[in-house]
Amino acid sequence: MQQRSPGGRTVADMGEFSLIGAVVAGRRQPSTTQLGPGDDAAVVSTPDGRVVATTDVLVQGVHFRLDWSTAEQVGRKAVAVNLADVAAMGARPTSVLVGLACPASTPAQVALDLARGMGEEAERAGAGLVGGDVVAAEEIVISITALGDLEGREPVTRSGARPGDVLAVAGRLGWAAAGLAVLGRGFRSPVGVVNAQRWPEPPYEDGPRAAVAGATAMIDVSDGLLGDLEHIAKASEVSIDVRAGRLVVDQRLTEVGAALGAEPLDWVLTGGEDHALAATFPPDVTLPAGWRAIGTVLEAGEQPEVTVDGDTYEVTDTGWQHWRR
Amino acid sequence: MQQRSPGGRTVADMGEFSLIGAVVAGRRQPSTTQLGPGDDAAVVSTPDGRVVATTDVLVQGVHFRLDWSTAEQVGRKAVAVNLADVAAMGARPTSVLVGLACPASTPAQVALDLARGMGEEAERAGAGLVGGDVVAAEEIVISITALGDLEGREPVTRSGARPGDVLAVAGRLGWAAAGLAVLGRGFRSPVGVVNAQRWPEPPYEDGPRAAVAGATAMIDVSDGLLGDLEHIAKASEVSIDVRAGRLVVDQRLTEVGAALGAEPLDWVLTGGEDHALAATFPPDVTLPAGWRAIGTVLEAGEQPEVTVDGDTYEVTDTGWQHWRR
What we know:
four-stranded mixed sheet, 24% strand, globular
């Protein structure tokens, strides 16, 4: 029997079906997975009578680089950015569906590592990989859909913030942007910020926790804090003021900023890809664990705006830009 | 105020957010859409307490060609192939999420036409476009996730076929393959088969109808009848025999076959992309409207197999091949 070394195998050698199998094989399925992959569609239970659904696409060279990250890290990231959107509605992630387009010449090991990363991140959030499709393309495009359950609560949208509310965040800010700056200069350390760029660690649990505590609006910070707060401000027709002194600028960001001649507060306020959560809470609410107050919701003036210590924040970089090509 | 002609606008000029808006704007949402696009995630009601979910990815040059089809037709096709998977579970489509990766230089009109086609096909099936993501890539990759509701019925999987069951199909077979043969030779007519290749018209209603009638197994015919029946045979551990005489070979397929020197029965038995539905029913069931009997489920011999008039069917082309690159 002829055998080829695993190192030389490609995605095309594996074939579509065995790759889908590898993406999902050996993964623990949560109790919500009634029918996993392998049929025309999956069946997922929705105890709440509603399902939260979101989709995000990641493209090689735009959203990740396989010379900066391992395939496993890319897989984790692809799933994490979607599950963060589910958490930002106050929902608990239940399921993930994976669409993978990649060159037929992609080493099988890369696809398997991508799959392992996806599975690990889904498990970390309590979700199951319930379906997938693998097709040939010229570059790697990963498209993920995540589903979640509201557990009987109302979804926390972007439009419920009211003047007087407290603005709070959960999770890290600025780390991924600092990591991008480091990697962009050709460095590979400090590893803390570099890994934050390689894959985010969204605080999934803090989404439902905020909803239980009565959060009035919530958003996943994917494009940068100020830019994403602008979405809340516009949707809620309010203004939002961030108190710079309340923001945590970690010592490591300060050090990287000093080394690269960059302003770490820029990263905290406008850096994307950390997938922290930002939410507004009624003024009398005790913030749940994991959340820290960083500002206030105000009446909108002529138009909704987001300020820092009462002023427009001036930065060179104004958030994450998708259209790089 | 400086204005640019619409003809010269690109996807990058539109920006990510306005393109997502265009994908979904002005579309009627079904009653299941509780929160449409524009927030971190959509909220879709799932009256059944379960949701059916499936994802499929289409790549330019592999699954569609914009010199063969209009962008609107491609949009319809991308949504149709996913909704057919939902119908094949016996479920009614409720929602569609769209991931679109395309070059920043893509004309805005192409993206808008793609979006219009997606919206039209979703509406045709009673589903809403509830979310989307648009990113830059080197080629056009469309990734769709479709959700559906089982309306209290059990999902019709691939594994329930039993010896003695009747095999039946709903929808057209062989048309898209005939169209592919025509287009591949550089012709643009006959328009019936060419359009069948450009976008399929899956018989969505026939999926739930089959489930209500007691179908024991069902599959969406995407890769060719014989190949897809093999999935049922293996999952159900049965053999399946197709009666060639029961298959409808439309006069147009016969004519195209004669013109191209091809065997039209090959297209009917192995041509993909028509997205007909194939299902098995208990022998005593009166087939619902839209379904026609074409064979029988048998005890598996040494291994499950699919035969035509009791024999292995010999074709040159053995189904749809994704790995063309």
